[in-house]
Design a protein that fits this description.
Helices cover 20% and strands 28% of the residues. The chain is of the alpha/beta class. A hairpin with a 2-residue loop joins strand 2 and strand 3 (37-41). The longest helix is centred in the middle third of the chain and has 13 residues, at 68-80. The radius of gyration is 15 Å and the shape is globular. Residues 4-121 form the VOC domain.
């Protein structure tokens, strides 16, 4: 079997709030409780295991490859919630979308401060 990413743990101040945010903003199925996690399953069988953490949350970066239609839908959800978004991971270009690699990308934060990225192309993508 080839090496595949199966899951990663997403630390959160409030696991229910973060899991609900991820599923709603990305348009995914409801999370499933598997103690001590709320499991958010992505289309490629990778899971985000959201875990409540007391104290400081080490923020991370989670990037999601989406199609053009999904990108528009997700960004519409971000805008509808009044969430700030940026064209870059350093949050220097507010309210903008990038055009890297011949696609589009944007960054926004989840309730715990994780830097979420949606993108329609990845580096080196020759489609």
């Amino acid at each position: 079997m080839a090496v595949q990413l199966n899951h990663t743990i997403v630390p959160a101040r409030d696991d229910e709030e973060t899991a609900r945010f991820l599923t709603e903003i990305l348009g995914l199925a409801a999370p499933v409780r598997s103690e001590p996690f709320l499991v958010v399953r992505l289309a490629n069988d990778v899971a985000l295991d959201v875990m409540r953490v007391d104290g400081e949350i080490p923020t991370g970066h989670y990037a999601f490859l989406v199609g053009d239609e999904e990108f528009d839908t997700i960004l519409d959800r971000v805008r509808a919630r009044g969430l700030p978004f940026w064209a870059d991971p350093f949050h220097r270009h507010a309210g903008r979308v990038n055009d890297w690699f011949g696609g589009r990308g944007a960054y926004f934060e989840d309730p715990s401060g994780h830097n979420l990225e949606i993108m329609t192309r990845v580096s080196g993508d020759s489609r």
